[in-house]
């Protein structure tokens, strides 16, 4: 495989993350923004909650002693809550206190010097689950021949607030997708249709609105994430980085092409 | 970084590859198709030709002795010719015989047991450059305040034919983007506008055609690549693979969740 040539951004989450490879989805946008700087790795697992993700994390994130062989994770986004917030007895439900414990555990996997996965170069960002529009979600499920599910706007809100609390406690920035989308929708449930594809997932394909043109739930999250990076981790903002291999016009005009073609650090050194 | 959990697809090429992270671009489509199976790594370098890519390859592809620590490259696509085919004295021009030598060298980096980069698990696919519509490309350049460039349909055709010859000689399948797009355009230069965004790059955003609806140059290449995989390397067709971590309903319904959450091989074992 690729030698240790580009560092990476890892997006950890549930289906909302997994579907980020859709056109205009979060992974697609980040991969485009970080092209030739960092690679973007999607670790989204549809239907998973914070309980099930912990053993998965322990298998995909390299232990400290193995990290030297592998691209560095420069940014890890953790975006859970959508499934944890299912209302009991839904089997995906995780109680609120277990949810916050699990989130803290995920954060400390990389941030705690005592963790076998300690990765001091990894910057963490938490993302809150989006507001659920249960009427639209149940229409979707029933339309697919399924049963309505126990999900609610209130429950998604409680889990979003809990993510913010974990962010405060662990000293990690939070992108508040819940509030961003709720406010964009004018705090009107029916207007959430503009930002959600099915009542649960942020839309990427755009909802054509007579007054606002194309609106996208993903746009709210992408803009929030870039803002969080800019404010908290400006060194890894895409615009702060350079291409690992030089732009072709530098190669073309160089008197010493083989030297110009030597890989560089994406971080511009002064 | 990620431990050795998902193998990868590496897309090597020039700007036509680099821009594949656009919505509906080739990388985006492959990342979506291979989600939770293989990761997609874009190694597209705008403006590069086969001469400049060789030292780059030697820096980003792991040497044989280091490959065990890293995700396996299951598929490597090599898509060059667009810049090599520039007409002299354009500085990106690479003579046709040097172009074929370079392409063979890239193929043999991974296929030859004598190469330091020998990677027996890596399947290679070559892709021909798309047809150039020089009128449209020069409109684009001049529209951006630049000068017209020496590129032509005929030259792109000669380089596309050369890629097919290399494929035959090296025993590697070829996706003939040139012929696919030329035939889709009814062999009419002006109709190439439907498949190219600017006369040089395959379009991803779609060209709304009164008679055909949305047409995409990328679609032709994507369909050709999936067909080549299906015919030559069926084991790595996205539909032949399983998720590395189980679908959530298997986890949910399992009597032994921790066992169900152990990573699996993407290749389904009988």
Topology at a glance:
2 copies of one chain form a homodimer.
Chain A: E1 7-13, H1 15-18, H2 26-33, E2 38-44, H3 50-60, E3 73-79, H4 96-111, E4 123-127, H5 134-143, H6 153-170, E5 174-175, H7 177-184, E6 207-209, E7 213-215, H8 217-232, H9 248-253, H10 257-260
Parallel strand pairs in A: 1-2, 1-3, 3-4, 4-5
Antiparallel strand pairs in A: 6-7
Can you give a write-up of this model?
The structure is a homodimer of 270-residue chains. Chain A is an alpha/beta fold and 270 residues long. The first copy, chain A, has a single domain, classed as Rossmann fold, CATH 3.40.50. Chain A contains ten helices and seven strands. Chain A has helices spanning 15-18, 26-33, 50-60, 96-111, 134-143, 153-170, 177-184, 217-232, 248-253, 257-260; strands spanning 7-13, 38-44, 73-79, 123-127, 174-175, 207-209, 213-215. In chain A, the strands form two sheets. Chain A has a five-stranded parallel β-sheet with strand order 2-1-3-4-5, with helices on both faces. In chain A, helix 4 links the parallel strand 3 and strand 4 (123-127). In chain A, helix 4 packs parallel to helix 6 and helix 7 (177-184) crosses helix 8 (217-232). The first copy, chain A, is globular. Chains A and B meet through strand 1, helix 2, strand 2, helix 3 and helix 9 of A and strand 1, helix 2, strand 2, helix 3 and helix 9 of B. Chains A, B: GO terms for molecular function: hydrolase activity. Chains A, B: Pfam families: Lipase_GDSL_2. Chains A, B: InterPro entries: Iah1-like (IPR045136), SGNH_hydro (IPR013830), SGNH_hydro_sf (IPR036514). Chains A, B: Keywords: Hydrolase. Chains A, B: It comes from Neolentinus lepideus HHB14362 ss-1.
